[in-house]
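Board notes, transcribed. Complex of a protein with biotin.
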Amino acid sequence: MTIWLRTTKSTMLDAAALAMRGEAHGTVVVAEEQTEGIGRHGNAWHSPDNGGLYMSIILRLPLTSDAMPVLTMALGLGVQRAVDEFCGVACDIRWPNDVMLNGKKLSGILVQMVDKGTLIGGIGVNVSQPSFPETLREIATSLLIETGRAYRKEKLLERIVAEVLRCSSLLTERGKAEIIRLFEERSTWARGKAVEVDGRIRGVTAGLNEDGFLLVQTDSGVETILAGGVREV
Ligand code: BTN
């Protein structure tokens, strides 16, 4: 089931409320506009009217909390594939799950656990914003800006939902190692990228460990990055 809303605070909150009332795996809440869009690390997610696809999907998966980092990567892989195939572009994924197009962020993903086995995958995709506020201009982009085309959000949504459900099933059926393998294959950020993490660690990415954490080779050894903002240097 897909529920389209005009305006809401955050589709993550709506999907969580529906999940608590028993709505099924795969139920999606989408809004044209969010007034309090939630991003990672306590940031807001810029969610203007007529710009992006703001969707949250209920995932009922037999996963424990240790699989959460890899689940967020699985969602990133799903969004990457859906956008690539639907729009004929070649997105990258910046660890852990920012979908990038031509070096700028096109999509952000946030996973929250509602209850044991019930998760909400929140996905924001910049579709038709002609521009971004000053503070985001250097780091964010949209499909319209990169391709010059206006895509139908309904069709893109269908593809994203299908791919996100497929990649989540891959995780539950084949385990973390398969998602990590795919991520290393489809992200230029997993290996050999000179990065800085949260302005404190500098080094070169050296793959992911078995829990999906990023390894960074620094001058003083290998650091395991559990969370944080990674940028290229
Ligand atoms: C990030 O900071 O990269 C994650 C952003 C996630 C944004 C999406 S938009 C749909 C859903 N509703 C929210 O309030 N947040 C997520």
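The longest helix spans residues 153-174. The mean pLDDT is 95.
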